[in-house]
């Protein structure tokens, strides 16, 4: 919403400095996005008449424009599509300056000299319109300064209006707020259009859908089409609209001034002098003003002529057929109130938004319909020589109810933490045209019909807060008296796990949970939760694993010249909901990825990562969580190297995977190996049994150590043999550790030698040589029996 | 053998030791000499052995002489050992020298993502104020993300937040949450008031990743529901929190009327610029203020949606973006920095 200061002053005598006005607007919630001080920095820009337009010999989209500048002729190169002979346009010659400090110079563009440029509204600081050159009043004398011509001694407040305040989407509404803020008189003159009985044409209005169109008013007038006067064009341009013709400009002017969208139909292009408001038939078509053929549904509302032929998409956009054109001599002027949600639904479904639909869907003033039409006709008599038919057809069967809202001053103070009196509350609301009566903590407030947002007591409390000012509200701190603040066990442990991986030298990443389905499928997730409206194919499903995001991140960092990586993520993954559940299963996973060189020593070459680096992180994770029982089990796992992967089990349940990633995964993201990784279900890990935290007494007796080496089949996991050795020692084994793996041709291709170091200690005595010999023999017997191993 | 012989022998050995021990060239040689002069086959051992052949009256003197001799040898050896240690240390400084400026065994330091760091910092402040940390699902139903928050279908506020929807085959709309506010609803549904929670979490919008937009970002919001919560409590809690966050008690807060469907009255929340203290600088676009987020009093319709009586319970809520906060504090220009996960960024924090 762009509100020119000069226009606001039509309704209230604002004389505060611009900065104070902007501050007041911000305070009351009409946020000032920008303050455009028009004409600032503009020098030397003058009106020029276009004499001739020829194609640039060396550029398809550029044209050579010959100009009459009032004191001679010159030529510019111009790319705008709307330049035509006879047009009057703002011309910035070499030496002229434009907003932002740009100084024009004579330039050669593709071999043709350009003596400056023609300006769009945006280039003159008049809003965002940059689609073409500003079309000036054709009666302008070439050479006139555009600052004088366009009334550029004005200030425009560019406001961001929140969706609850349709009333503030117009100049009158903004003026009302400012008048209240500065305690100034506020007056909107009552419009009065003299009528002309000769213009009378019989008109009927039939509303088939009164719930969707509670009020429809039709007026008729004869008009003489032409351009609107400069003062009106200037105000439209300042407010960000393009002048089109006097009739269309008047409807836009009233829209900007009063927040009432109007539509002018060419009366002679309607099939008879009547209007029917009805729902669309299934599959019915209408070509809207923007030239798009729209397929309609019964929920859409149509404005039709007497033959029920669609002429407009109600409240959103007119149709091309009955559009006002240069040969129009009589119009039917529509001023209506449409139900908000219906407009919003159609506008959203058709992705068609207009100044009109934006206002109707937020809520216009049903009681302002007739006044707005009268205002338009008043203007038309001035700018289009209108003859206004005396009668109005006004279908308004059920007058809009104004809610009567009970308002307690005590409640105002309870919500705001203030100590306001009844009179403070009454004084706050009156300037907003809210009728307030009563007092003594029992006020009845009746809001005006242009404030659809005011329905409840709390809405009025907000109005009081806005008017009194948020800076009048104190500062206190509320604290809970029945709970201790802090993290849940799950939240605390997520931090502990994260910190452990940071301590292990890994960098935490936060990848986008939207991933590519083909990459996710490589990790075995072939049925992920998919988005209905993804922006990119690469982000079209929700991750069912963290590793796809990590490999993508690794590839990106490698491409940026950082190939040595230790990355991890703790984050939510998404699985399809089980039957009978609406929402997907969300669970927290932890995953890490390592690639490139690891643990470099000064001046020594890098050691490439291997799967044991990933296993080490798993060990750190399990140890951090103090898991009681966890192990790895060799397995074939999607996304991992077939011979270098294992399942992570906690208490026998599979909770994750670890190993080297599959070559195909690396190829898919452009990495070369080795890349090692793990991923685990953190929720499941947390649920697994933990080590007993009861203190184990420290034995004062010395340990005894022995080494044992076995030749065993390759498929027997070292961890299994270690577990057997531990069990065989019956609680006396303090540590069992593999310290060597050996293969040779004598052993055979499928067998290997594994050497273990065992440390024994008893809680109650020093182990004798005989004790140790017995423990040794029990270990040997157990391993040879269980795995067909031989002692080496 | 007589006592005199004994003493003479020990004197001779001591003289010899006084010449040899101070010239020992290594600790190993010193140990050998010690053994030679005081070990099992030394003069001292022989003298000790001979004591029992002496007359009873001489035996104490002889024992005294052996002791004196042994102490002298030990003293000599200790002196030489200390000297040798000093010599060896001096030599080692050269022969065992390592240039520690060469580098390190480069096991890298790990890093917490800046969003995690920021999130923890805020959690710490709010848990210190007595709040609990609440979380909820990232995929939400229409009720929790919109309807219960006073955003009915076709409400214009829905178009303020471009939503990513999820396809699960059912009739009900399921979406990636557009804000952390659905957790407010879930908390109020699951626990009776009083409620004091802070809700950090990931949120989603249907936006293409570029310098200023990201389909994924993080919010944190605060909800307090109790019998007498006022807007003054809201403003005061925010002021207390931002002063702690920036560790600066001169920070001021500014509230301007705004609109959110789930709070009323609603306000935009800004803090005096922490860089220029309100003078105007690049960070605050010369305004002296930094817009941080939104806040307001819980709308009665929200209380009604979760079955709480708005006449009995009052509440406030406020929230803002974690990335935005970090961008302001550390001068990060582009939001995409947070999702690019460039190691050079991660390593800075």
Q: Sheet with the most strands of chain A?
A: 7 strands, mixed
**Integer average pLDDT of chain A:** 93
Q: Regarding quaternary structure, how should these chains be classified?
A: heterodimer
Measure the end-to-end span of chain A. Answer: 89 Å
| Strand count of chain B | 10
* Helix and strand pattern of chain B: HHHHHEEHEEHEEHEEEHEHHH
The low-confidence parts of chain B are none
Radius of gyration of chain A, taken over Cα atoms and rounded to an integer in Å: 40 Å
**Most extensive contact:** A-B, 94 and 91 residues
Shape of chain B: rod-shaped
Strand content of chain A: 25-35%
Walk me through the topology:
The complex is a heterodimer of chains A (792) and B (349).
Chain A: E1 2-4, H1 5-8, H2 18-27, E2 31-37, E3 46-55, E4 63-68, E5 73-78, E6 88-93, E7 97-98, E8 102-103, E9 107-109, E10 112-114, E11 116-118, H3 146-149, E12 155-160, H4 171-182, E13 204-207, E14 215-222, H5 230-238, H6 246-258, E15 262-266, E16 274-279, E17 285-287, E18 293-295, E19 301-305, E20 310-313, E21 317-318, E22 330-337, H7 340-349, H8 355-362, H9 369-383, E23 387-388, E24 393-395, E25 405-407, H10 409-416, H11 422-429, E26 435-439, E27 442-446, H12 457-468, H13 489-503, E28 507-508, E29 514-515, H14 517-522, E30 530-531, E31 541-542, H15 547-559, E32 565-575, E33 585-595, E34 597-598, E35 607-608, H16 611-624, E36 630-634, E37 640-650, E38 653-661, H17 663-669, E39 675-681, H18 682-687, E40 704-713, H19 718-728, E41 733-742, E42 751-760, H20 769-787, E43 790-791
Parallel strand pairs in A: 13-16, 28-32
Antiparallel strand pairs in A: 1-12, 2-12, 3-4, 3-6, 4-5, 6-11, 7-8, 9-10, 14-22, 14-23, 14-24, 15-22, 16-19, 17-18, 19-20, 20-21, 25-27, 26-27, 29-31, 32-33, 33-39, 34-35, 36-37, 37-38, 38-39, 40-42, 40-43, 41-42
Chain B: H1 3-20, H2 27-38, H3 43-50, H4 59-95, H5 114-128, E1 132-133, E2 139-141, H6 142-145, E3 165-167, E4 174-176, H7 182-190, E5 195-204, E6 216-226, H8 231-245, E7 253-260, E8 263-272, E9 289-298, H9 300-305, E10 314-321, H10 322-330, H11 337-340, H12 343-346
Helix pairs in contact in B: 1-3, 1-4, 2-4, 5-10
């Amino acid at each position: 919403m762009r509100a020119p200061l000069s226009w606001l002053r039509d309704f209230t005598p604002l004389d505060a400095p611009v900065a104070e006005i902007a501050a007041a607007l911000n305070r009351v919630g009409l946020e000032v996005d920008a303050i455009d001080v028009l004409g600032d920095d503009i020098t030397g820009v003058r009106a020029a008449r276009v004499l001739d337009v020829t194609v640039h010999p060396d550029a398809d989209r550029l044209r050579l424009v010959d100009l009459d500048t009032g004191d001679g002729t010159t030529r510019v190169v111009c790319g705008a599509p709307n330049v035509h002979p006879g047009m009057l346009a703002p011309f910035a010659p070499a030496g002229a300056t434009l907003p932002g400090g740009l100084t024009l110079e004579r330039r050669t563009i593709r071999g043709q000299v350009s003596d400056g440029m023609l300006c769009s509204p945006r280039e003159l600081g008049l809003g965002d319109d940059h689609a073409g050159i500003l079309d000036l009043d054709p009666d302008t004398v070439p050479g006139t300064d555009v600052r004088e011509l366009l009334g550029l001694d004005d200030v425009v407040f560019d406001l961001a209006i929140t969706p609850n305040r349709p009333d503030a989407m117009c100049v009158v509404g903004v003026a009302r707020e400012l008048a209240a803020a500065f305690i100034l008189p506020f007056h909107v003159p009552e419009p009065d259009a003299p009528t002309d009985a000769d213009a009378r044409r019989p008109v009927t209005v039939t509303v088939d859908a009164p719930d969707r169109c509670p009020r429809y008013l039709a007026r008729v007038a004869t008009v003489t089409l032409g351009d609107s006067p400069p003062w009106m064009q200037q105000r439209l341009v300042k407010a960000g609209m393009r002048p089109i013709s006097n009739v269309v400009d008047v409807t836009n002017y009233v829209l900007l001034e009063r927040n009432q969208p109007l539509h002018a139909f060419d009366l002679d292009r309607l099939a008879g002098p009547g209007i029917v408001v009805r729902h669309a038939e299934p599959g019915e078509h209408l070509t809207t003003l923007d030239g798009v053929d729209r397929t309609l549904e019964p929920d859409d509302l149509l404005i039709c002529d007497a033959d029920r032929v669609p002429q407009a998409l109600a409240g959103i956009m007119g149709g091309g057929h009955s559009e006002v054109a240069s040969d129009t001599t009589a119009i039917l002027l529509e001023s209506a109130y449409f139900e908000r949600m219906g407009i919003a639904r159609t506008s959203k479904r058709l992705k068609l938004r207009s100044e009109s639909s934006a206002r109707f869907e937020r809520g216009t003033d049903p009681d302002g319909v007739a006044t707005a039409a009268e205002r338009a006709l008043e203007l038309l008599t001035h700018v289009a020589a209108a003859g206004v038919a005396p009668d109005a057809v006004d279908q308004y069967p059920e007058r809009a109810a104004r809610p009567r809202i009970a308002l307690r001053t005590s409640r105002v103070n309870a919500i705001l933490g203030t100590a306001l009196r009844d009179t403070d509350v009454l004084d706050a609301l009156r300037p907003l045209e809210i009728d307030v009566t009563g007092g003594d903590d029992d006020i009845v407030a009746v809001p005006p019909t242009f404030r659809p947002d005011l329905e409840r007591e709390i809405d009025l409390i907000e109005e009081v807060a806005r008017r009194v000012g948020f800076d009048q509200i104190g500062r206190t701190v509320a604290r809970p008296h029945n709970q201790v603040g802090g993290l849940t066990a799950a939240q605390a442990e997520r931090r502990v796990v994260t910190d452990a991986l940071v301590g292990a030298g890994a960098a935490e990443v936060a990848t986008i949970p939207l991933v590519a389905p083909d990459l996710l499928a490589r990790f075995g997730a072939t049925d992920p939760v998919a988005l209905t409206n993804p922006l990119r194919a690469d982000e079209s499903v929700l991750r069912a694993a963290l590793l796809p995001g990590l490999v993508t991140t690794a590839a990106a960092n490698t491409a940026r010249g950082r190939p040595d990586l230790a990355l991890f993520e703790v984050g939510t993954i998404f699985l399809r909901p089980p039957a009978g559940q609406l929402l997907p299963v969300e669970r927290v996973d932890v995953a890490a990825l390592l690639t490139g060189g690891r643990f470099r020593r000064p001046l020594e070459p890098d050691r490439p990562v291997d799967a044991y680096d990933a296993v080490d992180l798993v060990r750190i994770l399990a140890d951090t969580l103090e898991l009681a029982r966890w192990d790895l089990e060799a397995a074939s796992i999607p996304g991992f190297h077939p011979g270098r992967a294992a399942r992570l089990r906690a208490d026998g349940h599979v909770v994750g995977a670890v190993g080297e990633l599959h070559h195909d995964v690396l190829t898919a993201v452009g990495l070369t190996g080795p890349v090692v990784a793990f991923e685990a279900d953190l929720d499941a890990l947390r649920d697994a049994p933990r080590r007993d935290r009861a203190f184990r007494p420290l034995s004062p007796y010395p340990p005894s150590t022995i080494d044992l080496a076995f030749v065993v089949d390759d498929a027997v996991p070292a961890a299994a043999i270690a577990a057997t050795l531990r069990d065989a020692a019956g609680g006396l084994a303090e540590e069992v550790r593999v310290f060597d793996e050996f293969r040779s041709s004598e052993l055979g291709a499928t067998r290997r030698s594994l050497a273990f170091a065992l440390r024994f200690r008893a809680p109650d005595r020093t182990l004798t040589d005989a004790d140790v010999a017995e423990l040794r023999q029990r270990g040997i017997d157990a391993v040879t029996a269980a795995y067909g191993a031989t002692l080496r | 053998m007589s006592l005199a012989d004994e003493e003479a022998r020990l004197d001779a050995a001591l003289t010899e030791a006084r010449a040899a021990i101070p010239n020992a060239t290594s600790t190993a040689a010193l140990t050998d000499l010690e053994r030679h002069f005081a070990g099992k086959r030394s003069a001292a051992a022989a003298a000790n052995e001979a004591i029992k052949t002496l007359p009873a009256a001489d035996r104490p003197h002889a024992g005294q002489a052996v002791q004196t001799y042994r102490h002298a040898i030990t003293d000599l050896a200790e002196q030489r050992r200390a000297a040798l240690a000093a010599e060896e240390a001096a030599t080692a400084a050269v022969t065992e020298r390592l240039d520690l400026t060469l580098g390190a065994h480069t096991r890298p330091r790990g890093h917490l993502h800046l969003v995690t760091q920021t999130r923890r910092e805020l959690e710490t402040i709010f848990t210190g104020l007595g709040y609990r940390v609440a979380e909820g699902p990232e995929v939400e139903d229409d009720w929790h993300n919109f309807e219960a928050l006073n955003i009915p279908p076709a409400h214009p506020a829905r178009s303020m937040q471009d939503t990513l929807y999820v396809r699960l085959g059912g009739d009900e709309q399921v979406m990636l949450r557009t804000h952390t506010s659905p957790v407010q609803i879930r908390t109020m549904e699951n626990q009776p008031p009083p409620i004091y929670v802070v809700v950090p979490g990931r949120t989603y919008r249907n936006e293409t990743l570029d310098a200023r937009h990201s389909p994924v970002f993080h919010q944190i919001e605060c909800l307090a529901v109790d019998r007498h919560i006022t807007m003054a409590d809201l403003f005061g809690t925010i002021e207390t929190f931002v002063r702690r966050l920036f560790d600066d008690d001169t920070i001021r807060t500014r509230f301007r009327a705004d609109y959110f469907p789930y709070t009323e009255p609603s306000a935009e929340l800004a803090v005096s610029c922490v860089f220029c203290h309100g003078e105007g600088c690049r960070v605050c676009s010369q305004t002296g203020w930094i817009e941080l987020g939104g806040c307001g009093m819980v709308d009665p319709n929200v209380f009604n949606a979760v079955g709480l009586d708005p006449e009995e319970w009052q509440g406030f809520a406020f929230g803002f973006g974690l990335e935005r906060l970090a961008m302001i504090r550390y001068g990060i220009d582009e939001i995409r920095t947070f999702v690019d996960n460039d190691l050079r960024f991660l390593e800075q924090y």
